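Posting this for the archive.
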Amino acid sequence: MSGNGNGDNLLEIRDLYVRFHTLRGIVKAIDGVNLEVGYGEVLGLVGETGSGKTVTGLSILRLLEQNAEITGGEIIFQGRDLLKLPLKEILKIRGRDISMIFQEPKAALNPVMQVGDQVAESFLVHEEISKKEAKERVLEIFRRVGLPDPERVYKSYPHELSGGMAQRVVISMALALKPKLLIADEPTSALDVTIQAQIMDLFRELINEMGTSVIYITHDMALAAEISDRIAVMYAGRIVEVADTETIFENPLHPYTQGLLKSIPKPGYRGKLFSMEGEIPPLINPPPGCRFHPRCPKRFDPCDKEVPKLMEVEPEHKVACFLFGGESK
């Protein structure tokens, strides 16, 4: 299902701004982001490292570091603005209604607790059940995610697990309470290709079964295509293009999206791979206007002065680029 901005969405991020206060200056990490996630939809959030994808995900759960400040915007989840809720309400939502799978599975687990007890904690915090019943529920979900010998895994510590097993435990933890929204932050990037494929198959199966909405954060366009209903392309703290997955791949409009797609290796191709010139600018002092303009092969007069607005140029296809409209923010 597509997010359509008409109030029928599970989540709507409206004009979000996030700043980090550092010794070097203020990092303008998120700059006016607008996103919607529909019920049962998988939204791929893609872009190079440093685009602001993870910060967007952490903002939803209010898990940002102490030097971070959300300076503007709304994050509407089921009709409530998460940015206005007291922390005790957010704690009730975390894990139960919204879960997150972090990039490095072992770093997300407590090294001095048995992994089974860590997953059981979700049930004990949010549901009035006994420790015995919580353990039974954990063993059941361990079996569901394909962990061998669930009893042994339950008693294991994170360092005793392989990367693939640790990721299955983290997925178990995130999906234990069947959340309405799952934020998956590069959940397979630390795994080898074979295990990555197994985890992706499992992930797709579980979210389809549960009807969970997902924000799938990745720098890999090909991986996003495998799982996403729609894709939002992010660059230097701004959304530059949003469309359904097929449209993004068949008719990419923003020069940055076109560059990302050209960078995907083609089977059997033996020539030199395409690589975009330059890199994401430092967000302490980002370039004026469109932040992509210093790297853009199609830039022209207004690009270095004005910020293009994210506009719908075709049904359900939005792009922030002066090539497709004259409006600026």
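The mean pLDDT is 91. The first helix runs from residue 53 to 60.
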